[in-house]
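Model the whole thing, not chain by chain.
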Amino acid sequence: MSTRRILTLARRVIRQVIRDHRTVALIVFAPLLILTLGAILFRSKPGPIPLGVVNEDRGIASPVGGTIDLGQRVTEELAAGDTFTVVALSGQEVEDRLRDGTVQGAIVFPGEFTAEFLKDRQAVLDLRLEGSNPARSMAISAQVTQAAMRSLASLAGAAMGAPASAQAGEGKLPVMLQATYLFGGEEFDTMDYVAPVYVAFLAMFFVFLLACVAFLRERSQGTMERLAATPATRAEIVLGYMLGLGLFAVIQVAVILFFTVWVLEIHHLGSLGLMLLVIVLLAIVGVDMGILASAFARNEFQVIQFIPLVIIPQVLLAGTFFAVPDLPAYLRPFAYFMPLYYANQALRDVMLKGWGLAEIWPNLAILAGYIGVLVILSALMMRREVA
Amino acid sequence: MTTDAIVQTNELHKHFGSIHAVDGVNLSVRRGEIYGLLGPNGSGKTTLIRLLLGLLRPTSGTIRLLGEAVPNKDILGQVGYMTQASALYEELSVRENVAFFAEMCGRQDRAWMDEVIQLVDLQDRSRSPVRTLSGGLRQRTSLACTLAHRPRLLLLDEPTVGVDPQLRATFWSYFRRLADSGITLIVSSHVMDEAERCDRLGFMRQGKLLAEGTAAELRRQRGASTLEEAFLQFAAVGLEGGSR
């Protein structure tokens, strides 16, 4: 094993990539573009949803005077936020308005709504949804439930005959919703949850393609044959490539990470250096996967074919968007087979839980193990061309 | 067996399935010799050269290169190999290509690299990326890469394909100068007029070495006036003898 030959090779690979300005731009800017788009989409708040309300609630007389109209209170609560624009409807209109899209959902408060609630201490909300977009339906249901809970909680306090002084006092409500967060908190948004693994995936994906094509070219332009006729061994060739392309991986990861943290202001609790380490390890795994995969490709188009075969299954199964414990049992073993899974775990632990090296080292060790195995496999696969 | 044999093979066979690409070749090339490997396309010249380099494992038989048994990665540092198609890094300049292959063989001699580039008359284009070069210039760059590490043995696989006659003459006069300085060359070709410039020739056909000798000897043996005629006669006899 000659370090000098490995370095010579690495230098050549670096030089080649630098000469290809477009590829350099792709490596650095494409992830930033995708990250920015992702951040905008994950963080954008949709405009107010038109929600119909049919209020037939007659209410009941309050023990302290006046009437308590629960339907009215919930409606006011719904209208208060910027989530909904409330449209008053009559019972007959509901179906038509849902059909023509004037409203996307409608709540019907029957005449005995308040009375029933006070009797059963449970409100049954009659929510009718347009229903063609499941995500939107879920959002409406959740928001309506929340609004109803807030107003019912205040009413419960008022209607149960509690003294007026207690009503005025804070924190005395018999029904209260208090969300607590084990990790993260209210300032965390979806982007914060997705960002760690999004970053990891982008870092792996681009260097995978780069390595796969670079190594393929070495064979197709005949230089691999020539390289094989020098004292360089197969392992030296693979390591040289890994080192050369690894540099770009590090640069790319650094750019992505700083962009994520400083420009997109993704929250991270753990150390930035540790995040960098995890992603760099994963990117090097990506380089080695690319080199290995190139042995099975005859041209650039066949490299593209690895995207649905190697890349997308990793994204779907390795816990990027879908949590691995929620996968069907027969799919879970595949997740444990994928390097991205271990990087995802380590990154979420560091970014969302603020864990340190002491907790995440097993994941790092597994990633390092992948690098070793892939280098050996790549060197063995080269035997087919190089004796 | 001569002691100064730089290349020595013994009953070398290479089979690809049912195809006998190299079929019992006994080759012996001496130091400072230009050995011409002559034969039509598909006669096994490239396979033989790849076997000599250790890029292929022989089915049977042995090879010694520069006194060492093949395969041996270390001796490759003293061997220059020019592939049929000019195998170069397109994004890199002429000089960077030459320097890369020299360094891979453990040599970093700037003065020698300049000399090699001058030799193939590329000093004006040494900073140009290979991507911008014509076919002939690429071929010259390829030769420069082969020489960059001062090899003791050169294996040149059809080095003059696609090279214009003037440059071809330049190449051959240069091959002679190398041989005179003690470097051994094996040059494969299917162009007969090049063969006249070799010290010794081997006629190859269907993986067999049909005949060996100087151009004059080979012509005389068959009473032929040209090498081409001699080759065709050897081929006819060789195949007759070979058919069982």
